[in-house]
Amino acid sequence: MKLKTVNHIQLEIVTVIDTPSHLEKEEIASFIFNNQKEIKESKEDVFRCIEFAFGQFKHSGGFVVLARDTQKMNNPVVGCAVVNQTTMVGYVSENILVYLTTHGDYKEREINKSLLEQTLHFAKGNIDVLVNLNNENKSLLSEYGFTHSYHLYRINRN
Question: Does residue 158 lie in a domain region?
């Protein structure tokens, strides 16, 4: 679903209803993988997150907010937010904002702000965000009411 266009940046929400193709999912995964800053997750894990958002697994769902540059050939992705729905209520938030990423050449255009605004508008229920301590989006998240509530401890078993 196409949303607003500001300064040649087109925002759109993509859900399972839009039946994104493998090629479209690959474009989103490549964009996120190539523009990650703090934590480099494998492209396979990024792709799996996108497939989860598009309901490819049992009890999965969510959505993706894309920002595309309409002045460039093929309208490339220049910003992206990926939300996975947890199907839980109360004890864990209903949504996890997994990725909020903008291409380095577009940082000055406040694309992350627009992506976050659309995420907050479209998501139903509470939203968790896992951020690295040095994440550049921490102040933006605070500005929109996110609070630092927990520390995450993880054991990687692979």
Answer: no
